[in-house]
Amino acid sequence: MYTEIIGTLKGQDKHFACVVSRFNDFITARLLEGALDCFTRHGGDEKNITVVRVPGSFEIPVTAAKLAKSGKYDAVLCLGAVIRGATPHFDYVAAEAAKGIGQAALDSGVPVIFGVLTTENIEQAVERAGAKSGNKGWDAMISAMEMSDLFGKL
């Protein structure tokens, strides 16, 4: 028989940081709303959330790394929206955001959650920020709660 360790979804006594891109704020504001709603519905207190605004998704990783290494947070959520345009800019920003967020988690040993939308168009972003496809900010908070609880058990 094996031993299984799993995290539960509870926000009580958890302290999270949310790094939120100001670029595409009409989307990222909804992602943050979803994350905060999820946190409070799972017993968390909004006073235990620190929101840090950065210019764009490219700036999220270095900020997340600094927050994760501070020792103040059980998890760091990264919320942004990179929407494809007519230039390769999308590819560079999306790739570096993903790579940097993953590296921040590995370097700090703290759950750093990828909640950056990478979509082909505005409609897809809107769908993932609270319309047809749910709210990916909510989903990011679910991951943060589960991973922070799991890490407490490891």
Could you characterize the architecture of this molecule?
This protein has 154 residues and is an alpha/beta fold. The chain has one domain (24-153): Lumazine/riboflavin synthase (Rossmann fold), CATH 3.40.50. It contains five helices and four strands; from the N terminus they run βαβαβαβαα. It has helices at 25-41, 60-69, 89-108, 122-128, 136-153, and strands spanning 16-21, 49-54, 75-83, 112-119. It has a four-stranded parallel beta sheet with strand order 2-1-3-4, sandwiched between helices. Strand 3, helix 3 (89-108) and strand 4 (112-119) form a beta-alpha-beta unit. Helix 1 packs across helix 5 (136-153) and helix 2 (60-69) runs parallel beside helix 3 (89-108). The model has no long low-confidence stretch (mean pLDDT 97).
